[in-house]
Amino acid sequence: YQRSMRAVAGLAGREVGRRTPVPWGARTMLDLGGSHGHFAAAICRRHRRLRAVVLDLPRAVDRAAPLLAAEGLGDRVTHLAGEVLGGDLG
């Protein structure tokens, strides 16, 4: 499932990175339910000072972590296992 979702995201990733508004001076982004992290990675590639945390369910993070690692953004885009509803968003 995660690999399939990543493949579909690959079709629009560059466009998402280009069209997503990022406030001037932003340094941190939270991607809620971002799974494989491809969209967060695309946005971070476009905005070099930006870092992102991809929050998703623990089971999703377990399966999606290798896909995020393949993006090659090291510690700029990371996973956080948790729940959007009722969880601590920092």
Give an overview in words.
With 90 residues, the chain is of the alpha/beta class. It has 3 helices and 3 strands, in the order H-E-H-E-H-E. A 3-stranded parallel beta sheet has the order 1-2-3. The termini are far apart.
Relative helix content? 40-55%
* Overall outline: globular
Order of helices and strands: HEHEHE
Number of H/I helices: 3
Strand order of the largest sheet: 1-2-3
For this entry, what is the oligomeric state of its chains? Answer: single chain
What Rg is obtained from the alpha carbons, in whole angstroms?
12 Å
For the termini, the CA-CA separation is 28 Å
Q: pLDDT below 50 for ≥5 consecutive residues: which ranges?
A: none
- The total strand number stands at 3
Please render the helix and strand layout as text.
Layout: H1 2-19, E1 28-32, H2 38-46, E2 51-56, H3 58-69, E3 77-81
Parallel strand pairs: 1-2, 2-3
Task: List the keywords.
alpha/beta, 3-stranded parallel sheet, globular, 3 strands, 90 residues
Outline of the structure:
The protein is of the alpha/beta class and 90 residues long. Helix content is 43%, strand content 18%.
